Amino acid sequence: MRAALHGLGDTVPGTFEVTPYGIVHDMRAPNGPHELTVARLRRRLDAALSAGLVAHSGAPDVENGAEGILRHPDIMLIAEKDMETEGSFDPRALLAAIEVVSRSNPDNDWVGKLRDYPLLGIPVYAVFDPRTGSGAVFCDIHPTPDGPRYATRKDFLYGEDVTIADWTISTRDLPRYT
């Protein structure tokens, strides 16, 4: 599936991810509130992180070929040394994955990635939802009959401080979708 996605190049708009259930095509065109949320979160996290760690947004993606999963988090907390690789990042190198819910496909963040990220071994998953001005942080991966899942969920409202892994940031002034 990865080869098919690369074959599309820039001929089809949107982003593509691979899951065990097929290809996810998000038709979203980058919009101001989504991108501004990513930028503000990234700056706040970078200011809180210790030396050698970064809040990275952009390419490449994270992939576990054995599980048939290729995902692209909006923000990845990762050590700089773990970015010194060719191709996709190893998802087990991520300290956390952060998603800003897409207006066009919210189930991708709230359902699909919530299922896939613990399977990839990403220890912390934070979701920011500009539709509702709320979010949640998931952690503590544990086995279930349906595969690994997060055992702990901590909900928050925009305006509150939120802790993602070992770092606490403000959610003040994050934009909402109108």
TrEMBL record:
**Per UniProt, what is one Pfam family of this protein?**
Uma2
Question: Which residues span the membrane?
Answer: none
UniProt KW Amino-acid biosynthesis keyword: no
A single GO molecular-function term is: endonuclease activity
Name by which UniProt lists this protein: Uma2 family endonuclease
Instruction: Write down the SUPFAM superfamilies for this protein, in alphabetical order.
Output: Restriction endonuclease-like (SSF52980)
UniProt keyword terms in alphabetical order: Endonuclease, Hydrolase, Nuclease
Q: Where is the Putative restriction endonuclease domain?
A: 21-141
